Amino acid sequence: MHHIYETLVNAVRAEYLSGEQDYPWIIGFSGGKDSTLVAQLVFAALMDISPSRLNRKVHLIANDTLVESPLVVSHLMQSLQEIETGALIHDLPLKVATTTPELAHTFWHLLIGKGYPSPNQQMRWCTDRLKIQPTSRYIREQVTANGAAIILLGVRRNESEVRRRRIASYQNDADSSLSPHNSLVGAYIYRPIVDLTTDEVWELLSSFPPAWGGDNSRLVKLYRDAAGGECPIVLSQEDAPGCGTNSSRFGCWTCTVVEKDRSLQGFVDSGNVQYAPLIDFRDWLKEIRNDQTLRQSRRRSGKITVANGRLVPGPFTVAARQMILERLQATEKAYGARLISDAEIEAIHRAWAEDLIQQNQREYISE
Hints:
By secondary structure, the chain is an alpha/beta fold. It is 47% helix and 10% strand. The chain has twelve helices and ten strands. The protein has helices at residues 2-17, 33-47, 70-89, 107-113, 125-146, 161-168, 198-207, 217-226, 262-269, 276-287, 318-335, 342-366, and strands spanning 25-28, 58-63, 94-99, 149-152, 178-180, 187-190, 229-230, 249-250, 305-307, 310-312. The strands form three sheets. It has a six-stranded mixed sheet with strand order 3-2-1-4-6-5, sandwiched between helices. The chain has a two-stranded parallel sheet with strand order 7-8. The chain has a two-stranded antiparallel sheet with strand order 9-10. A hairpin with a 6-residue loop joins strand 5 (178-180) and strand 6. Helix 1 packs across helix 2 and helix 2 (33-47) packs across helix 7 (198-207). The model has no long low-confidence stretch (mean pLDDT 88).
């Protein structure tokens, strides 16, 4: 394994030093096994380059949807702190950043404030607002400031047939390891571990501790307890099938796209019984989605939609949204920690007031 690791580090080092323009690197970091290995390889490569040649800036960005699985987000934030501290100690041009959705696009504001129905495979409104937009905004800022940016992803052909086809859709130049991103103009993709198998990833992580310090035991325990894999960095709608799949993945604890949250249940089965209230809330949220008595007849636009002779319900009613908020706050008490911010609650109350005013206006006009 030493030869494989050394070959990968040398390849990353050579790529860092290549090219006439030192366009910034942006590592998409989820805290899972694949992105952790990519971060390790980059960190090791940077330490093997003389300070005078460290001219390319490296950004390591994580996306916090604000409804991440608690154990996962705890591991993610610890990892970011360790990497940031290590970069400072070794004086590396590596910046750590976290992207979050705007207040108007948080999960709770859209679900409880605007009444969006719980996400499912047909209406997965969460992925774009919580994942794609925050990360894409950061990347576009770097492209604007530097003319281009290179995104490092821990995607591998070995992961799944869907991922293999996705990777194949990018066309590399014959003499380049970079591929233009399909939807982010000025952004290019670099995949340092694209040809590794899952076993090889774990062997490398087990054999080589990160150069920023510590080891990967916390990561191994996270996977073992969750019995799953990470939801990947999502940069476009084409990437979205990896978010909220029916496989056992850890991601948002509120995810109603999956039938059952086997990863969070795995945490509970591993002895973390404090997360049981979260599972109960998620299951209830999925259960009430198609309750017609909790949904408005009109869409948010005011239109009534009929398909195949049946009414297509609109958002949750304001009364239903109030019920969901009360249930969430009761879940907070049972869980013993905040699950929604004061800012989100204020925005939710404003959204309710606006919707009630619009409803009253429609009723007045129709009379």
